[in-house]
Write a structure and sequence with these properties.
heterodimer; A: alpha+beta; two-stranded antiparallel ribbon; 11 helices; B: Rossmann fold; six-stranded mixed beta sheet; 7 helices; binds adenosine-5'-diphosphate
Chain lengths: ~400, ~230
Amino acid sequence: MLFPFRQTRVMIRANLLSLPRWMAIATSMVFSVALVVLVLAGFLSMAAGFERALTSAGSRSVAVILGGGTNQETGSDIPAAVIRTIEAMRGDIGVARDAAGNPALSREIVVPVELSNDQAGAKMLALRGMDPTGPALRDGVALTAGRFARPGAREIVVGDSIARAFAALAVGREVRLGAVTFTVVGHFSSGGSAFESELWADLDVVRSAFDRQGEVQSVRVRLDGAGGIDRLRSALGGLTATPLVAVVEADLYAAQSAGTATLIRLFGWPIALLMALGATAGAINTMMSSVSDRTVEIATVRALGFSRLSAFVATWVEAAVLSAIGVAIGLAASWLIFNGWQASTVGANNASLSFRLTLDGGVLLTTALLGLAIGVVGGALPAVAATRLPLTAALRARG
Amino acid sequence: MTERPYIALKGVRKGYRLGEQAIPIFADLNLDIPRGDFVAIMGPSGSGKSTLLNMLAGVESADAGEVSIGGARLDLMGEAARSAWRAGNMGIVFQFYNLLPMLNAAENVELPLLLRPIPARERRARVERVLDLVGLAGRGKQYPGLMSGGQQQRVGIARAIATDPDLLLCDEPTGDLDRASADDVLDMLRLLNRELGKTIVMVTHDPRAASHAQRTLHLDKGHFIEERRAA
Ligand SMILES: Nc1ncnc2c1ncn2[C@@H]1O[C@H](COP(=O)(O)OP(=O)(O)O)[C@@H](O)[C@H]1O
Ligand SMILES: [Mg+2]
């Protein structure tokens, strides 16, 4: 049998044309769907943005060496003697070397510092001390203002995320961190990744300012080709004095983000699903009353010979279209409200981590599908009801 | 050898259930209507006139017995087949017109034409022709809400004859109209019967309305108890 296009179309049109009644139905459906979409998009874009901040911080061609039985920077400790041993290693240890043939590495340490900001009060930030090679051992880092800190100088460069939030960190300003006054000499970006939530300074300056002489938490190296990490690991395996682990930078940050992103999703999904359930019940209710409002009209066209299928599809399509409009409005609102919104949380090292909510394709698709499901599921029952109306309603009832 | 009547009910049984209670309407109803006849069915309220008409329309089914129209056995058809049959073979005129208020007169008349593979241009031509036939030429763009009852019923008749069916079923077509409008509508039905050869079955409780028909059947207690045939 041919699909009754013309019948269905005229039935949909007849319904859409009864504007005031339709507006009431449409408004309630569209808004409940939009609200569900908005809430889910909020949570998912937060999780996605958080993940992106951390995963984009990580490069696959950089490795972080950690010591002291931990696989995070916090609590890691690498004795100076071990670093000298690594530097002295000849042969292929999977690490890129500089012009002089030495492994290109950056020794690093992170200390939490408190900075007060005019609006938000005091905030914990991560101050990273690093060798001059540090910035070059990170992919996607670029100066947006000024220059990097000079070795031995009490200078800091500031990630763009915090530079935006703290007027006190403008280039040229002086800022007191711990017992030492630093001069801000530059700002850098890293594509919104976690690095942008850090302050960078010279390793020795940070160590002396915070009384951490001789300490190194992590060593960053650039890997030499795809198999570099394995060769590095086996080279480190030979160092029996101190157990060291080498982690690909990307994996390090992914591991940090996974827990939090999962938590955000675990929190967001039940709320969104619960709301979706409510919205579906609401959709069933409104569409049911829409069908019963149209009893005489539906029965009349059915009595004229319109098929059951057309009555079903007209009602169902209407619900689906309304939910699609709700999805569009919800996504547009989410985009306006959430996308790029800067949020911050407590990240590694107890320091604040800024990230931007991200409405990526996955978030858009997931929320759109949930919104559409409300219409498709919520419209099905009323659509069936529309096919079951007794036709005698047309012949007996007052029109 | 007599020709098989156009409409034939044989041994039709029909009743309703209200909870536990069975309400019998017809126990053994028989009726023959030849093609081209104009029959008025009268009877007290609740005697089953609408029920009979609904069975002829295939909107309700008989509990037992045969309902055949033009050789088609409605009682043997399923819901979808009856729906298709209705679309192709009969027009229905409702007491309360049953026009869709959000569609204008022309669009209302066009409804049954949408069920057939007729190109849009021809549909519009047909709509104009039948609107003209019921005296509403040029009124196609008007909405039902702005029309008098008599005009609405004429739109209803135009819709019923748009597909040029052989059979018109009318349930109290003048029941909601003033006398002048009712006469208009009845004249129109008579015209459709005489000039275009439509078979018409009209339910009414108004003897004046019935007097326009060629033949009047009285329904009482489940049977036709009286018959009058116009000269
Ligand atoms: N759907 C129904 N359920 C129960 N009883 C019904 C139903 N439809 C009609 N009846 C009853 O059947 C009888 C005949 O109704 P109807 O055919 O409408 O009579 P008429 O049109 O002659 O007034 C009435 O008593 C009415 O109450
Ligand atoms: Mg009746």
